Sequence to fold (97 residues):
Amino acid sequence: MLCRRPRVVLISCPAPMLEDDSRQPPNGLVSIATVVRKLGLEISVRDLAGLRPEDLSGAIGDADVVGFATYTATYKTAVRLKDRSEEHTSELQSLRH
Fold:
């Protein structure tokens, strides 16, 4: 149980099948982060565009709550990241929409 406010991380998953996935900035996540920050929570957005799946291990860091922005092309990467992060901490909460 947390005795402090949770650390929230919102992740925009990479889409390696696209020529340049950095052309799609995570504007939706930034909007959500703005509202969450105004509520007084510690939050960060991690845009993983351009990263290879094997380079994603540190993406979640020491977050307590993680949200993933995903669509069909990035869904498997998001699930792998979530599964890998749950191996490291039993209390991590994952949000999916």
About this structure: Strands lie at 7-12, 42-47, 65-69, 93-95.
